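1st attempt posting a full record on here, be nice pls
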Amino acid sequence: NPQRPLYRRLLVELYGALALPLVHRTLAEDPAVAAAAREALGRIGERAVKPLLDALGDDREEQQRVAIELLSRIRNPGAGPALIAYATGPAAPDLRARAMIAAGALGDPALLPRFEGVLLDQGRARADEGDPVVVAAAWGVARVRHPRARGLLVALVASEAPSLRALGALGLGLLPDPRSRALLVDVAREPGWGPLPRAAAADALGRLGGGASADVLTELAATADPAVRGAAVLGLVRVRAPDVDRVVADALVAADPEVQRAAAAAAALLA
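the predicted structure (as tokens):
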């Protein structure tokens, strides 16, 4: 009853008590336990979406927080538009960012036009990364993994904001589209792009694979920047480049701890 929000508040609290323990079980080492928890969450989600979406408009911040947390875990595609509308509204900044992350976690290509409205200004990607909602929207686009996302990801790579550039590059690496390789090579090789985007481009090249990617990654594995070098070493393992054992061994005894950590991950992947 919209005139009696007490009922909805109690219902949201009950859904929270039911769902949050299941969220922890989805991380269980036993695959059967995790699968059963995901199935139970799905059943709750079929009933809970409407009251949880209504709770986004509640004047109590705690109700909004619980609703966002549950919607991010239940992952019902129908919640996407409401979450993005909330994220671009007047709520507290941390809740708006969490709502955008919940929308991005859906991985729904139907939300791309709404993400575009947040990320682009007159057809160009925003240059400011100070708003966590914008960064969360870029993360959501990178997770979509749909051919329709490619144009927006390319626009993000052209942004002047390093984190948006990096997320755009990572998203391109998750799309099996060889057209992206030339752009990623340019970003990875050019120091002016900054270490974070270059490292993301190296990671993406490793995921795309191919001989051209291996050549560039071999070059980057000798660079001085630890983030770029670490991503290149991991990428070389993904493409199974020749002499990759030696590259990983050299990185394991590098002076920089960041390179050592990346090399340890590469060695585990190689094994």
